[in-house]
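Marked as duplicate of an earlier ticket. Keeping the data here for the record.
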Amino acid sequence: MEKSRLLYVMAIVKTFDVIIIGGGLAGLTCALHLSKQNIKVLVIEKNPFPHHKVCGEYVSNEVLPYLNSLGVDVLTEGAVSISKLKITNINNKELQTKLPLGGFGMSRFYLDNLLYEKVKETSEVIFKTVESVSFFQENFIVSTQDSTDYKAKFVIGAHGKRSNIDKKLNRNFIEQKSSWLAIKAHYKYNLSENIVALHTFNGGYCGLSKTETGAVNACYLTTYNSFKKFKGIDDFQNNNMSENPNLNHFFSKAIPLFDSPLTIGQISFQPKKPVENHIFMIGDSAGLIHPLCGNGMAMAIHSAKLFSELFLKQHTHKNIERNQFENEYKKQWNKTFSNRLKTGRFVQKLFMNEATANLGFTLLNKFPSILNAIITKTHGKPLNNA
């Protein structure tokens, strides 16, 4: 946006303390936290609620105290309590362990809408697509595709795994081709309520867990090279994934509840910067953990808490020194999440290679404490109240 246009727009547009781009778990949680402290927040989300998203839909219990303090009680709302983890491979080798903190299953259709209903009581939420973000004279102008402009001193990127915003910011990861795609659907199937299952297959892995409706969420990640050898989703599921006996049983017995599965491509696990062009990134916009570790949703919520607390601490001093704030956020984000992401990449490499996976199953069955240590490294401690 040209300088003269920016000066004009800044003088007349609607102004907020914070604009959040993206209304997923991270964005909505952040809005709820900030607005409870009388911060004027605008959330810009592309799609009206409720809607389904490609997601594993398992959440670690580490976030429960924090969500409860925000007035969001997922267990009362029907979330399924999960206490066990099961991992299998195509050779029918199996690992089972109790999850140290436990977790819960809830669909993004329900959970995101639950947060949205809370957020809209204290913040403004609009359903539009962001076209551009300009930073000028210590303020942002966020422009949407309908040529409407909004102003804020701070902007948060909560737009998910990849977005047109990432392209406009020239973020490093967006230029690198990714070999991963994900597919998700809900099914009617008799799965134990207290378990999250991860079944590996040639070229990927699939997570199964129950949601609040009783439906089983099946979400799998695979490589393009594996997927393109088959004629489509059904062919891939029936003739590749079903080499794992557990997935063979699932796909032969489960009744699909969606008209067609949801898909997302070009999923990048490359490192991302927590701050880009003065925009604070949270959730998957800041970094994506491999779904095999099953903790992306909790990390998204945790990152919202991390930013919100740092922002509120700085906000009390009125004149926030931007560079100092940005550096502190980068430092705290890396301290909190970098080791989790590194462990996630290690686990993914271990179980995606057949030789190391077989060795891993044997070793972890003999020494289950190692598996518990890995789970602990990819999860956090229970979060304090807001």
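See parent ticket for discussion. The chain has one domain: 3-378.
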